[in-house]
Amino acid sequence: MSTDAAVAEHHDGHPDPVRTRKVAMWVFLGSECLFFGTLISTFLLFRTRTGDGPTAVEIFDIPFTSASSFILLMSSLTMVLAHHSAERSDWRRSRIWLVATALLGTVFLAGQVFEFTEFVHNGLTITTSPFGTAFFVLTSFHGLHVAIGVIMLLGTAGISYAGRIRPNEGMNVEAVGLYWHFVDIVWIVIFTVVYLMQV
Amino acid sequence: MSATTHEARGLWAWVTTTDHKKIGILYGGSAIVFFIVGGVEALIIRLQLAVPEGAVVSADAYNQLFTMHATTMVFLVLMPAAAAFTNYFLPLLIGARDVAFPRLNALSYWIFFFGGLFLTMSFFLGGAPDGGWTGYAPLAQQVTETVRMDYWSLGLQILGVASVMASINFITTVFVMRAPGMTLMQMPVFAWMAFVVAFLLLFSLPIVAVGLFQVYLDRNLGTLFFDAFGGGDPILWQHLFWLFGHPEVYVLILPAMGIVSEVLPTFSRKPLFGRAFVIFSGIAIGFMGFGVWAHHMFTAGLGPVAEATFAITTMFIAVPTGVKIFNWLGTIWGGSIRFATPMLFSLGFIAMFVIGGLSGVTHSIVPADTQQHDTYYVVAHFHYVLFGGAVLGLFAGLYYWWPKITGRLLDERIGKWNFWMMFVGFNMTFGPMHFLGLNGMPRRTYTYPRGLGFEFWNLIATVGAFLIALSVAIFLWNAIRTRTKGEIAGADPWDGRTLEWATSSPTPVYNFAEIPHIETEDAWWHAKYTEDDEGHAVARPIQPDPDLAPTTDIHLPSPSYYPALAAFGMFLIILGLVYLPLGLVLSGAGVGVTLWGLFGWSLEPLTKESPDAGHPSPEETTEESDGSEESGDEGAEDGEGDEGDAQTDGEAGNEAGDDGDEQTDEDAEDAEDDKGDEGDKQTDEGAESAGDEDEDEDDGGES
Question: pTM value?
Fold first, then answer.
């Protein structure tokens, strides 16, 4: 393979796709910061407006959420390992780590579903109070991002299995990884601001 | 040798194009169509207000008209018109062959197209949005008997998605696609302003996206974001809207400023005065634009500290704007000026924008603003900025770049009629609104009683509006007439300074026969001219030739129908979301179509050639795309199926994938295509639970 980055750059006036996608992903994540920033701001505005419904102290189960947060953070480690393997073109191992990351993400999502169910049983729904509204909408949007990440991970693994990732395109794993780490970091903020600081 | 293209012909070529120039023309054509739609809405408004107690339309229709007039002009005219110039000229100005992600670019356009269609067709489906373009709570949130504001919130949402994608694309283009040697500061000013606008959109749209989701949820799921009775906060909406809305103002005006900064030097035959100052002022406006939003809310009761703060920031943001005005004047000063039509529009821009800018600064004085709030004075102000500023600037760009796009010049004599008619009509329409507003006429009023002193100026404004309409008709006539009879432009009709004039007209599909190497700003000018001892421009003895033919085989991005397909899927999703709960079926189908488009896209090679395996024959490429289509088809059918099932299917497929060690890691070969397609099916199904947030996915996806 002679298509190293130097040759690929400005090939026919088309730049190196590896670098291009990485830049685009960073730019996109910049936009996402504002998206979650707005949701978190809305939550902070409404955090004490619990009306007749349960308050944060009454409803949150910190040990449980800590456990699921830990699982999500560990998925960042497996993501790093997937990228590390991809960089060395060890695709088989990379796929294993990708699927492992996706599984950890799925476990986190399952935890969120369980948590939501518990909250609803305990009387906090999306229409109970502004607190409930802001909490559910914020965490649901985060969960949606995790779900999309899981699909991207499985998709990347599947495409890799089908032999569609070229040896010099380890970047596809890196782009998914950037997104995945971002979603994790957002969760750290949400866990701190929404859960820990409210109890 | 010529450029390699796989161009289809006719309408299909436009649907599948990934060429930034064609997409630019699509944006421009759409903007002109919507300009006429929004203009007709404005004319009906002016007819209704021409005389007291007007009865041309009902109050209900009037609400729809003023809401849609503003929504159309902002989101479907000014933004796409700027996107048209950015699409067409950003790559040319920085010496590139295309934008960074040609298919993402097509997706942005088609989402915009369907978003515009979605908003406009609401007129025929029970009424258009009628809560004002600002959608203030509680009016827009709590009137849920009609779905009009659902159309509004979902339509703006999808238009925002298109703009964010376009912004990511443009920013990446500027970062990685500049011609060799071109530093950021050597980028032409229009490219710079487009760059700043992309950042403004990137950071402001997610804010209003959250707000629009909240509006939608409040209206349809009973959440309490803006419901004061339930403990929510209607003022929150105002903050979220204006945190987007004020940067949006600069999104609308900066492209026009960029155009003027290109036109003035060309027609003054002088470099832009204080070029770095103009660029940095644009950046400063971009930053400060995020710090002034609450001056739209001085009557909301924010308290004296907030009001004083935003009054001061509002005064400050006039400084970089003023810097630009003086730089433009400095550019003209002592130049050898040609009063061609683009120059007239640019000078008109400066004059009108100064008036609009000054009336804008008056709003920073809180007591005065409280008096002017929601009166026609505000209407006068923002029309001076957005029509006298943005529209005149965009017309300058239209006359300036028309020959580059079409190969023929617009007629200068008709163009001057166009300009003067528009200029006079504009001032007749919006100048009197200052007086009306100061005399207390409220904006958005359906009618006004006799004897309040509003009659005379309203009549003048209506006459002026029809003059503007006439001037637009003159422009259209000019455009149609010169298609066949126009003077052939040649590569460089204005003796231009920037790289787009280094290509023949109309621009060839490959843009540059050879990618230029850049050492200075105004590179094309310096290729043509040198300086004598006194600093006067002297033509170089050997002039560069823009009509070069390419010497190598240039591979261009292939056409693709997947972007349009994915955009159509998103259209179905939002259409379904209007009519809950039954519409969810339609939304589900939309998710399927969108995923079909995105997965077909991500598995389709960009240039239909593999870098190391030579060029496949056309038959091979057709087969390949057919294969993806089939697999996508199944995914679409499954779209209505059980989500849980699909999820496990996807995982099972990938576990199987891990067991398959015999798989070599070599490039995809045609022999493996069948297998690959099976893998695609699995991922398609696994992706079923994506819900409706597909835009996140493809932003991170393939080019």
Answer: 0.86
B606 CB contacts (<8 Å, ≥6 apart)?
Answer: A17, B102, B103, B557, B558, B702, B703
ipTM of model: 0.90
Q: Which of B416, B461, B414 is nearest to B436 (CA)?
A: B461
Do the Cβ atoms of A14 and B555 come within 8 Å?
A: yes
**Across chain A, what does the average pLDDT equal?**
87
- Of residues B143 and B217, the one with the higher pLDDT is B217
Q: Does residue A4 register a pLDDT over 70?
A: no
User: Cβ of B221 and A127 within 8 Å?
Assistant: yes
Instruction: For B276-300, write each residue's pLDDT tens digit.
Output: 999 999 999 999 999 999 999 999 9
Rounded Cα distance between A181 and A84, Å, is 14
- Among chain B residues, the shortest Cα distance to A133 is held by B223
Q: Give the pLDDT score at B340.
A: 96
Element counts in chain B: helices (H) and strands (E): 24, 2
Q: Which of A21, A34, A99 sits opposite B703 (nearest CB)?
A: A21
Instruction: Please name which of A41, A31, A141 lies closest in space to residue B201, comparing C-alpha atoms.
Output: A31
pLDDT tens digits, B240-267 = 999 999 999 999 999 999 999 999 999 9
Chain A residues near residue B667 by CB distance under 8 angstroms: 163, 166-167
Q: What's the rounded Cα separation, in Å, for the pair B471 and B414?
A: 10
Alpha-carbon torsion angle A69, A72, A78, A84, nearest 10: -100
Neighbours of B451 (CB within 10 A): 8
Q: Would you tell me how many other CB atoms lie within 10 Å of the CB of residue B412?
A: 15
Chain A from 125 to 164: CB within 8 A of any B CB: 126-127, 129-130, 133-134, 137, 144-145, 147-148, 151-152, 154-155, 157-164
Tens-place pLDDT, residues A14-50: 567 777 888 999 999 999 999 999 999 999 999 999 9
Q: What are the structure tokens assigned to B195, written together?
A: 């760059």
Please check the confidence at residue B599 and state whether its pLDDT lies above 70: yes
CB pairs under 8 A between A and B: 228
Amino acid B68: pLDDT: 96
DSSP secondary structure of B307-323: HHHHHHHHHHHHHHHHH
Largest Cα span, chain B: 89
Residue B302 carries which side chain, given as an amino acid letter? L
Kindly list the residues from chain A whose CB atom is less than 8 angstroms away from the CB atom of residue B596: none
Bridge partners of residue B408, in order along the sequence: B488
Q: Is B375 helix (H, G, I), strand (E, B) or coil?
A: strand
* DSSP-derived secondary structure for A109-154: HHHHHHHHHHHHHTT--TTT-HHHHHHHHHHHHHHHHHHHHHHHHH
| Closest approach of B558 to chain A, Cα-based (Å) | 13
Nearest Cβ partner for A1 among B164, B612, B679? B612
- Distances in Å between the Cα of B168 and the Cα atoms of A13, B78, B193, B457, B471 are 19, 19, 15, 45, 36
Mean per-residue pLDDT, B570-599: 92
CB neighbour list of residue B96: distance below 8 Å, 6 or more residues apart: A13, B173, B177, B178, B179, B511, B515
Contact of A107 with chain B, judged by CB distance below 8 Å, is answered with no
CA-CA-CA-CA torsion for A124, A127, A128, A133, nearest 10 degrees? 70
Q: Which residues of B203-219 are buried (b: 16+ CB within 10 A; e: fewer)?
A: bbbbbbbbbbbbbbbbb
d(CA A23, CA B275): 27
Q: How far apart are CA B3 and CA B435, in angstroms?
A: 59
Q: Does A51 touch chain B (CB under 8 A)?
A: yes
Residue A49, chain B, CB below 8 Å: the answer is: yes
The answer to whether A110 faces chain B, any CB pair under 8 Å, is no
Query: How buried is B542 (Cβ within 10 angstroms: 0-12 exposed, 13-18 middle, 19+ buried)?
Result: exposed
